[in-house]
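Curious: why this fold?
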Amino acid sequence: MSLLQIAEPNQSTQPHQHRFGIGIDLGTTRSLVAVVRSGKSQVLEADTNTDTLLPSVVYYPSSGTPLVGSEALAHLSDDPKNTIISAKRFMGRSQSDIKFSHPYELSGEADAMPAFVTAQGDVSPVEVSARILAALKQRAISALPQDSIEGAVITVPAYFDEAQRQATKDAAEAAGIKVLRLLNEPTAAAVAYGLDKSNKETSQQKDSDQAQSYYLIYDLGGGTFDVSILKLTDGVFEVLATGGNSALGGDDIDRLLTNWLIKQLDIAPSDVSLHDKSVLAQQAKSYKQALTDVEQVNIDIVVNEQSFQGLLSREDLLKIADPVSRRTLSVCEQVLRDAKLTTQDLDEVILVGGSTRMPAVQQVVTEFFAKQPLCSLNPDEVVALGAAQTAHQLVNGDSNNNLLLLDVTPLSLGLETMGGLVEVLIARNTPIPVKKRQVFTTYQDGQTGMVIHVVQGERETVDNCRSLGRFELYGIPPMKAGFGRIEVTFSIDANGQLTVSAQETTTGTESQIEIKPAYGLSDEQKEQLLIAGFQHAEEDKNTRSLIETKVEVERELLALKSALVDFSALLTAGEQQRLTTEMEQMQVAISSNNLTVIDAQKAKLKPSSDAFAARIMDQSVKTSMAGTSAQDW
């Protein structure tokens, strides 16, 4: 029997509604679920009032049902190989991409998402995440009226690519959860803070034409890091730029601190057993958390029968965590450049994620941005609360909240054109959902099919970008090169799911693909795609210019060869010989890969080519006009 909800006056316009959308923060280290009830968003607790923040841990014993949460975490030190933590780091990534340290034995192909080898057999990261999501779903079912849950908004790092997002949706489906939307974690935090209300207050103080506010969301969780810059204008919330690292977080600080503790004993990390490392890691985390409230803590560790006692201060932790801090600030700098802003342009810096509780992190952020960051809401809960508010709007159509969310796609998306060039249809940091169309044509005479190759990246050539998928379009009517019309459409929905379709416009023949890569990008690949795009900008510009020129002249040569077959009678023998010779010289120039040489030969060929084209046109006009008089026109 469900309880009747009682709301105070003006607290809710729908105090007794029984349609709920839940918000789920599927975190690397901890997860939680929230809901909006009686107009207020709140985190749902477990029946035992423990594990409000559910540890994202699943334990697979040799027999019996797998354990989730604190019960699973209790087995980490004695059975680390069967206690799966940070499964989110493995979601949608290939085995060859996983270069960070972990205690697990992995199975599967190098170019596919791996499985954990456990006492109960091979278990994929999707299955582990599904167990965690199922536990959160059960928590919601216990707290809400029967059959009242319409679906869930699940948050993901803003930098998750298509494969990682799809893996998250697969995990939700396996847990029996209807996904209303995948929401970027920084966006959820902005919703929780009610930045639209802050924007309205700011608008009253600023000129109406300048009523814009800029916010930077600094989200450092247990295993992922995200930065997003948001612009709010008259209730429209737009993500200007986003960046991050899907394998960087508080876990890395724990590892740095664990290695520091080992060094205090003058023991090589390779000489420490897996069991002792797990115990040390838990101690390191407890010391790190304790330094949130005190200036220093006493440490007492035992490794390989050697003991060490001493002090660990906040200043020590600041130095130990410096490699992680510097990497996060590097991402902040890049995102600011992408948004064409400086630190002075920001109205607020908002801290999200459990790792931002650390005074060391808060100090680094404060110094870098020269302003005190905003962290009034619980950083562990803020993402789930924002997801719950979004779910409530989607399920109940909340007309009183006119906040419009505009997320962005993190990397450019395009397709391969002749010469191995990339034609970008959706540029990096384009707001989503989005749909872009572009018309392409055939390259050869009589061409009846076309391969559509979808790529992702910031370089000008396909070889330097990442392939997302291919599909084929057949049924193109045979015609002269350049006369076919193929309309290609790139569409990204609110969940970041990419669909590519191609249609031949005269017949309506169509083909499409939903991009679901077998694995996602590693953090190194993501950084390389972005950094390489900047480092090789001038080189890529020259390469593109060369390839485009070669493709252009090759198409002209094909057209000339076709025209010589059909209209050779329009040229004298000498003219044919001269044109043929110049075409052969053009082919040699193309082989040189020298743009200057190609341009020079192109200029030499142009008079003969233009004269031939003019004669063909004249004959076509005479043929079409034959048998008519001026009076007919």
About this structure: Residues 148 and 550 are 63 Å apart (CA to CA). Residues 1-13, 203-209, 517-526 have pLDDT under 50 and may be disordered.
